[in-house]
Every structure is written in structure tokens, then in C-alpha cells.
Design brief:
The protein is of the alpha+beta class. The protein has 8 helices and 25 strands. The chain folds into 4 domains: about 160 residues, 2-Layer Sandwich (Alpha-Beta Plaits), CATH 3.30.70; about 90 residues, Glycinamide Ribonucleotide Synthetase, Chain A, domain 4; about 120 residues, OB fold (Dihydrolipoamide Acetyltransferase, E2P); about 40 residues. The protein is about 20% helix and about 30% strand. Bound molecules: adenosine-5'-triphosphate.
């Protein structure tokens, strides 16, 4: 059977992936856990999320499904942060006999949950239409993520995946500062990058794979395959690890992006890859956020932002000028695209006026007075007016991304795109 779980955590603690890791061990008494557990990131703009909008799925071969269901529900009741208003757990159980019937239905549901907004009632309707065994706690919003995670498990071959090795803290340490040897993270990165990514942010000298919240996660190493993420994890020196789990995940795949044909169709709470032409010089607003507008060929426009947490990425964005042709990816909220990556396709030529150069000695001529043209003092050569010359742009066409410390879970790091013929500038 496939088990999908979501929405068990709050800002004060817990993490649905921790519950998944516990169940991996505890359910061994009921059967064999098959394949990797899944950590599925859903629409990153959903306001109900605690942090990264994640749901979890496990697949187990069992002769006693009733016992499995009872155990999973009792663990959710015991561990979920029910006291938090935003915590509304959901669990879904798909029996093997229903796999074929539900595969296409839950594939659609997964894609919608990653790219669109779903009502709780839609999840409940689907559950009753197909007679799916499930339990929603409180308002049952977690049923959305739980169904989507089951959809991912039923359709493993249709979505691009990466892996994450998650290490969890001992319970008595939850909520206390994490004891880690920082240098070991830089070492692990040196030895395994680019097959692992987002362990550290070299430019900003930050460790990005260690959370700061009160949840049980000690660190999470992301990478291309299960071997490399665990190899990197074995190089980390830190406080004792209670348990760890390797998840197969849609992180780092751009699965959230919709192609936008024109800017008129863009909606809040959705993420896009879109193209346009920069239509004004970027400006920096209070808080250090850098904003500029783009337009498409039909004259529709949208504001695009590199927010303050994107750090040095803003330096690049400030160099854009009207006429530059760009393709951008990111999420839209309040009518503004939060940039995750930018491909600068062509740079608009920029011009300035300059005094003419002397054809004999090459030096700049001097003005001979108002409306009297220009003259070289040394050679005596003359010219009537200023000349127009092209300014060399301090910017190269190519693909750029926000630094690791500002990366969205679903955003595909440029280093994963190296196989294409784009000129890429991965952030490290
Ligand atoms: P963590 O990252 O620590 O696991 P979280 O950020 O995953 O926490 P949740 O507690 O899972 O946050 O809350 C997200 C809620 O939003 C869940 O109830 C989930 O079912 C719901 N949800 C997920 N995707 C969508 C969607 N596309 N439309 C509507 N609701 C969604």
C-alpha cells in the first residue's frame, strides 16, 4: 500500500519528514518498505504552509493494511502539532488493488498541487468518489498534500527527481542551538559538489543545509543520487544523529514552473517561466529590494523583483537596462514575479555622446565654444559635432540564479542544467 501524509508540523516543532522517518522503522513489523520514501514539495506560494510546503509518501508491502493504517493514525495523533491553528493533518492510504485505477487521477492531482491552488473540498470529493481510505484531522487540509504525495509514488517515472539525506536530532536537543562543525560542511561540499548542491553558500559564507527553526532536522544534503548525498552526510561532524532517512524528491527540478505564453495570463499564487523585454531601469526600494518591469510583444507587463534575501544577485539585476531581452522564472504574488533565475538573451546596445577624437593624434578634441564645434589644440583639426558611441555593457548574456541561501526548494540549480548549451553562471 501507499501512505501519504501531510501537515503535521508547526513553526514550534515537528516536521512531516521526521514522522516519515519514524514510520519507515516502525512499519518494519508490518511488512517491507519498498523503494525510497518521497518528499514532495508542493506549490511554494500556498499561504497555509509552515515552511517549504512538503508532503511525504511511503510504499510498503504488507499483509495487514488495517494494522498499518491504525499505527500511522496513532503516530499522527501523538506527534502532530494539533494545537497550532495552521496544522491540519491528513493521511491517505492507497491499496495495491487500486493502483492502476488511481494512477492517472492522482497524477493530475499531483501536478495541480505543485502548480496550482486546490480547495480542501476538491480533495474530499476525490476521496469519496474513488472510495479512498483516508483521515483528515481538524479541517483536513493536509489531505491535499497527502493525495499529491500518493500521486507522486504512483507515477515515479513521470517526474524528474533528486535525493535528500535528512539527519534528525535527538529529541532532548529539539529547540536548542544546533552543535555543528561548520568547516565539515564546506569540506563535504568541496568533495561532492556539483553532484550535491545547496550544502553551503560559498560567496555569502553560509551553511544553508542546516535549519534554524525548532524542528527535528539537523541537516539535509541534496544531490543527484542516494549514494552521493549519504557520502556527503558521512563527512559532517556535528551533535549525535538520532536517525536519518534518504528521500527521493522533486526538489531542484523546476516542477512548479508553468510556461507563460503571454504576460496577460499570469496569476498570483502560480510560478512561471516567462519572457519579455526590460521596460525601465531597475530601482531599489526601501528594504533593499530591486524591482523592474518587463513587457511582452503584446504590451502586457509585470513587475519583477530580486528581494533583499537574494543578496549579491541584486547587483546583477541592477545592471539591466530597457531593451534587454530576458526569460525569467519565479513565483507570482501581489502581481510581482519573485525571480529565481534569469536568462539574459540579448543585451540592448547603449549609447552616449562624446567629444570627437582627432584623426591625427587620436586625442579628444575640445569644444571651441557654444555652437562652434570642436578642435584639437595640438593638431588644429576640427569637427562640427559630438559623436555617438556605444557603451560597453558590464553584463554578459547567459543564465544566472539567486545564491544558494535564497533558493526555493523546487528551483532547479543551474549546475543541474550544465548539459544544455546555455552559457550558465551557477551561484556558489
Ligand atoms: P514543512 O516544510 O515543515 O513540512 P510545510 O511548509 O510543508 O511544512 P504544511 O504544514 O504541510 O507546511 O502546510 C501546507 C498545507 O497546504 C497542507 O495542508 C497542504 O495539504 C496544503 N497544500 C499544499 N499544496 C496545496 C495547493 N496546491 N493548494 C492548496 N493547498 C495546498
Amino acid at each position: 500500500m501507499i501512505i501519504g501524509i501531510d501537515d503535521t508540523d508547526s513553526n514550534e516543532g515537528m516536521c512531516t519528514t521526521y514522522l516519515g522517518a519514524l514510520l519507515l522503522e516502525e512499519l518494519k513489523t508490518c511488512g517491507t518498505v519498498e523503494t525510497f520514501p518521497l518528499l514532495i514539495r508542493l506549490n511554494p506560494t500556498i499561504p497555509y504552509k509552515t515552511r517549504g510546503n512538503a508532503a511525504v509518501a511511503l510504499r510498503i508491502k504488507t499483509g495487514c493494511p488495517e494494522k498499518v493504517i491504525a499505527h500511522v493514525l496513532s503516530r499522527i495523533e501523538a506527534l502532530a502539532r494539533m494545537e497550532c491553528e495552521k496544522t491540519n493533518p491528513g493521511a491517505v492510504f492507497i491499496l495495491e488493488k487500486d493502483y492502476e485505477k488511481l494512477r492517472p487521477v492522482l497524477r493530475n492531482f499531483l501536478e495541480k498541487a505543485v502548480r496550482d491552488v486546490i480547495e480542501i473540498q476538491d480533495a474530499k470529493n476525490l476521496i469519496s468518489e474513488y472510495g479512498i481510505s483516508s483521515k483528515g484531522f481538524k479541517n483536513g487540509r493536509g489531505l491535499i498534500g497527502a493525495l499529491a504525495a500518493c500521486g507522486a509514488m504512483l507515477n515515479l517515472e513521470v517526474w524528474e527527481h533528486t535525493f535528500e539525506h535528512l539527519a534528525y536530532r535527538q529529541k532532548e536537543r529539539w529547540g536548542t542551538p544546533r552543535e555543528i562543525e561548520k568547516e565539515s560542511f564546506f569540506e563535504a561540499d568541496r568533495k561532492t559538489y556539483p553532484e550535491t548542491w545547496d550544502t553551503v553558500d560559498l560567496k555569502n559564507r553560509l551553511i544553508v543545509c542546516v535549519p534554524h527553526s525548532a524542528d527535528p532536522v539537523l541537516f539535509g544534503i541534496r544531490g543527484e543520487n542516494p549514494i552521493i548525498v549519504s557520502e556527503a552526510a558521512s563527512l559532517i561532524r556535528a551533535e549525535p544523529v538520532e536517525r536519518s532517512a534518504v528521500y527521493r524528491t522533486n526538489q531542484g527540478t523546476d516542477m512548479h514552473l508553468l510556461p507563460a505564453v503571454n504576460l496577460a495570463e499570469i496569476q498570483d499564487m502560480h510560478s512561471y517561466r516567462l519572457e519579455g523585454t526590460v521596460s525601465a531601469v531597475p530601482k531599489t526600494i526601501p528594504g533593499g529590494h530591486v524591482i523592474f518591469p518587463i513587457r511582452d510583444t503584446e504590451g502586457n507587463g509585470i513587475d519583477c523583483a530580486a528581494f533583499e534575501p537574494t543578496k549579491n544577485f541584486r547587483l546583477l539585476i541592477r545592471k539591466l537596462r530597457p531593451g534587454d531581452k530576458v526569460a525569467l522564472s519565479g513565483s507570482v504574488n501581489s502581481g510581482t514575479l519573485n525571480i529565481e533565475k534569469i536568462e539574459i538573451k540579448t543585451l540592448a546596445p547603449l549609447y552616449k555622446e562624446e567629444n570627437p577624437k582627432c584623426p591625427s593624434c587620436g586625442k579628444n578634441m575640445k569644444s571651441s565654444g557654444q555652437a562652434q564645434g570642436f578642435r584639437c589644440k595640438k593638431c588644429g583639426t576640427q569637427a562640427a559635432s559630438k559623436i555617438i558611441c556605444e557603451i560597453k555593457r558590464d553584463l554578459e548574456a547567459g543564465s544566472y540564479e539567486v545564491p544558494p541561501c535564497a533558493r526555493r526548494h523546487l528551483a532547479k540549480p543551474l549546475v543541474r542544467e550544465q548539459k544544455s548549451d546555455l552559457k550558465i553562471h551557477p551561484a556558489r
